[in-house]
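From the methods appendix. Each design record in this collection lists the tokenized structure first, followed by the designed amino acid sequence. Records were kept in a plain field format so they could be parsed without special tools. The example shown here is representative of the layout used throughout.

RECORD:
FOLD TOKENS (436 positions):
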């Protein structure tokens, strides 16, 4: 189990450039716990939850996963409990009675379990209506003392994009005491409905919620502009900023839609000007350039590139074809964006090791088995070196374009800075007005 969790954590660290966990200390270190995350990103979500806490977590997983190649082995190795859903073709109620009994037994043993209250992964801008399973498990766990329920918000900057960022945000736990079952062996329906509503409110406090995708898009663009000058670089800070912006968006849309439309137009024009200059908002993080700072940054970057290129170039060449094949297969197989990252990760877990073994076999045939084994072991490191080089090079080129604009088009550079500052002031003024 520990080795598998380490491998899953490694996969996450490769797929995402940054994985941040906040509030893990809020999870009780012992005793029965139910973790309650939202579900925006397929099988990536349970992997993120399982690797975000030091506690061993028993996941509840839909029954068809147990019959899938590779995935079935993983969920069984994790001790997952199968859930039989009608949309998966399950019709025998005995299956879910077994599921409730297994979940109750895990809680009685003081274990932590994870269940996704929405019931299915999706890309909707708002939470889907919650299923009652989590409440029924908590209230119906006979012989179990007080159970801690911990909401968890999963947030991805670009959930289907390789080397984006992921945040797991654990909220404040609340506690539930199981109740005696009714004549049908189930908890009282009114109590189940009340607890489900409580879970819904707790989840909304740790997730981004909007009535439409356009709201999320505008808030994301505004957050990118505002976070350039933010002192807090953590994903948690960016996530909370988006929460505040979404709250302001809803209020402004109701009270003054014309000001909202004007603000959106200003942000769009500013982004168009940035695109015209080949810049990202974060490329303008530095307002002034000095000869010393530019020289130091350039020399440090060139030294870094010189040291990394001998490893990164072979890594890029070896992984170019499987990387392209993974992307092509994922885009063909995945019909929804919420399973695209899952498909990419699964395809990568298959194709990249096959590539390493193939190259190692060829090297072994030519130079002997020792060099063949060394080639197999070296390829993942070479691939990671290529990733690091590409990301560092992107940042270096962005900073270089910003510097060239500063030198050759100072007026345009300053105008972009003034535009961003003006938009930030307007958002702050609107926030003060709405709060008042």
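DESIGN:
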């Amino acid at each position: 189990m520990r080795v598998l969790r380490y491998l899953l954590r490694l996969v996450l660290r490769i797929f995402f450039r940054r994985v941040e966990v906040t509030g893990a200390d809020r999870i009780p270190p012992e005793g029965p716990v139910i973790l309650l995350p939202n579900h925006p990103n397929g099988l990536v979500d349970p992997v993120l939850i399982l690797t975000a806490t030091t506690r061993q977590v028993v996941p509840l997983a839909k029954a068809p996963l147990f019959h899938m190649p590779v995935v079935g082995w993983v969920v069984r190795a994790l001790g997952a409990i199968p859930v039989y859903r009608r949309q998966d073709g399950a019709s025998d109620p005995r299956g879910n009675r077994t599921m409730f009994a297994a979940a109750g037994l895990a809680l009685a043993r003081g274990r932590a379990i994870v269940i996704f209250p929405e019931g299915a992964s999706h890309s909707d801008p708002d939470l889907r209506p919650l299923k009652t399973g989590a409440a029924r498990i908590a209230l119906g766990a006979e012989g179990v003392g007080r159970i801690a329920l911990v909401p968890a918000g999963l947030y991805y900057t670009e959930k289907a994009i390789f080397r984006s960022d992921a945040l797991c945000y654990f909220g404040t736990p609340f506690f539930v005491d199981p109740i005696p079952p009714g004549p049908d062996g189930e908890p009282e329906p009114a109590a189940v409905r009340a607890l489900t509503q409580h879970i819904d409110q707790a989840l909304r406090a740790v997730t981004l919620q909007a009535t439409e995708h356009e709201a999320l898009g505008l808030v994301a663009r505004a957050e990118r502009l505002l976070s350039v000058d933010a002192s807090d670089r953590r994903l948690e800070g960016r996530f909370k900023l988006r929460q505040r912006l979404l709250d302001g968006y809803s209020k402004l849309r109701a009270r003054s839609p014309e000001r909202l439309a004007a603000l959106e137009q200003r942000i769009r024009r500013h982004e168009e000007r940035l695109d015209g200059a080949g810049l990202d908002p974060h490329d303008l993080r530095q307002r002034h350039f000095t000869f010393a700072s530019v020289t130091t940054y350039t020399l440090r970057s060139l030294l870094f590139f010189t040291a990394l290129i001998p490893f990164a170039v072979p890594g890029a060449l070896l992984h170019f074809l499987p990387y392209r094949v993974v992307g092509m297969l994922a885009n063909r197989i995945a019909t929804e964006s919420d399973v695209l990252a899952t498909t990419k990760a699964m395809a990568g877990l298959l194709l990249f090791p096959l590539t390493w073994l193939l190259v190692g076999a060829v090297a072994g045939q030519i130079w002997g088995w020792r060099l063949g084994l060394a080639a197999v072991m070296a390829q993942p490191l070479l691939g990671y070196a290529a990733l690091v080089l590409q990301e560092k090079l992107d940042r270096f080129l962005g900073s270089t374009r910003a510097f060239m604009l500063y030198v050759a088009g100072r007026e345009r550079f300053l105008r972009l800075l003034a535009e961003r500052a003006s938009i930030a002031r307007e958002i702050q003024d609107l926030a003060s007005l709405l709060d008042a």
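APPENDIX NOTE: The chain is about 60% helix and 10% strand.
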